User: What shape does this take?
Amino acid sequence: MIVIGIPLAGVAGFLYRKHIAEQKIGGAEQEARRIVEEATKAADAKKRELLLEAKEEAHRLRLEFDKEVRERRSELQRLERRVMQRDETLERKANQLEKKEEQVLRKSNELDRQKAKIDEIIAEQLAELERISGLSSQEAKQMLLDSIRKEIEYEAAMLIKDTEARAREEADKRAREIITLAIQRCAADHVAETTVSVVELPNDEMKGRIIGREGRNIRTLETLTGIDLIIDDTPEAVIISGFDPIRREVARIALERLVADGRIHPARIEEMVEKAQREIENRIREEGEQAALEVGVHGLNVELIKLLGRLRFRTSYGQNVLKHSIEVAHLASIMAAELGADVNVARRAGLLHDIGKAIDHEVEGSHVKIGADVARKYREQSAVVHAIAAHHNDIEPETIEAVLVQAADALSAARPGARRESLESYIKRLEKLEEIADSFEGVDKTYAIQAGREIRIIVKPEKVDDLASVRIAHDIAKKVEKELDYPGQIKVTVIRETRAVNYAK
Assistant: This one.
C-alpha cells in the first residue's frame, strides 16, 4: 500500500503543480494581452496627438508663408509704383530739358545776331572816332595802353606802399616783442675798455727805480712784454700803453709785483714777466671755460676755449669782445626759442661768431673768415660755421640761425653805451649817408640826424610826386643797406612839400 501510495502522491503533486503553473501562465498571458492593449491604445493616442501637432505646425507655416507672400507682393507693388513715378519724373525732366535746349538755341542765335550788330556798330564808331580824332586804331590803342600803364603803375605803387606799411607794422611789432623779451632776459653791464693801463706807485721815487740805470730796467720790461711804458709827470702813477691787451695785462701784473717786491733789475723783471705770462695763460683758459659754462655751450675744443678766453682781453670800439659774444649767444638763443629755430646752433654760433678776433692780428684776413676757418678746423657743425661766416653779410645767410646771430650781434653792438666810435669815422659815416641820398634824381636836400640813426630827404615837388617819393625812400633804404656798415637800423624819411603863397591887396 505504502509502495502504491507514494507514486500516487507524486503524480498528484505533479498534477497539482501543473495546474498551478497553467493558472500562472494563463494569468501572465492575460496580463500580457492587457499590457499590449494598453500600449496599443497609448500608441494610437500618441499618434493622433502627433498628427494633430503636425497639422497645426503645417497650418502655422502655411499662414506665415501666406503672410510673407502678401508682404513681398505689397513691397513689389510699392517698388513698381516708385519706378513708375521715377519714369514719369524722368520723362517730365526730359521734356523740360528739350524745351530749355530750344530756348538756349533761340537765345544763342539771338546773341549771335546781337553780337554781329554790335560789331557793326563798334566798327562804325571806330571809323567815326578815327575820322574825328585823326588817329589810327594803332595810335589810339597805344594811347589806351599808355593810360592803362599809368593806372597800373599808380595801383602798383599804392599796393607797394600799403603792403610795406602792413608788413613793416607787423614785423616791427613782432620784432619788438622778441627783442624786448630777449633784452629783458639778458641784461648785461657795459664797460668801455681802453688801450692803456695805469699802475699806481707808492711814491715818485719808484719811477727812477723802474727806469733803472741808463734806462735798462724800462728797456728790459718793454722788450719782454712788447708794450710802451710811459713815465711822465703824473704823480705816483705809470701808464702802460699797447694795442695788444694780453701783453698789456702781462706788463701790468709784472710791474705791480715788481713794485710790491721792491727788487727791480733785469733778471727779476724777466722772472716776473714769465710768472705773469703763465698766470695770464691760466686766466685765459679759465675765462674761456667760464664763458662756455655761463652760456651753456658744451663740448668745445680746448683750443676754442683758449681763443674764447683771449677775447676777454680784446675790445671792439671799447666793448669787451668776450662779454659781447656772451650777450650775442644769449640774445640769439632766446630769439631762436621764440621763433622755433635750433636754440643750440644759435647759442653756439653766437658765442663763437667773433672768435676770429682772438687771432686776427696774427693771421691775414677778416675776423669773419678767420673765425669760420677756425670753427671748421676744430670740427664745429656746418650750421655754426655758416652763421659765423654770414654774421657780417660776407656771404648770404641761408638759415634762420644765421640771421638771428646777425640780429643779436647788431643789437648787442647798438645798445646805448655798448660801444663808442671815433669822431672821424662817425663823420665819415654821416657824410656817406648823405652822399647816398643825394645820388638820387629829384633830391633837393638831405640831413643825417640822430647820430646817423635817421636821414631826412627833401625832394623837389615839381619832379617827384607822392608815389615816386615812396619808391625813392625804398630805393635809398636798399642802397644804404648795401653800401654802408652801421649798427642797428637807419630810418629813411622822404619829405615832399608844395606851398602856394599869394597876397590879398
Observations:
- The first helix runs from residue 2 to 133.
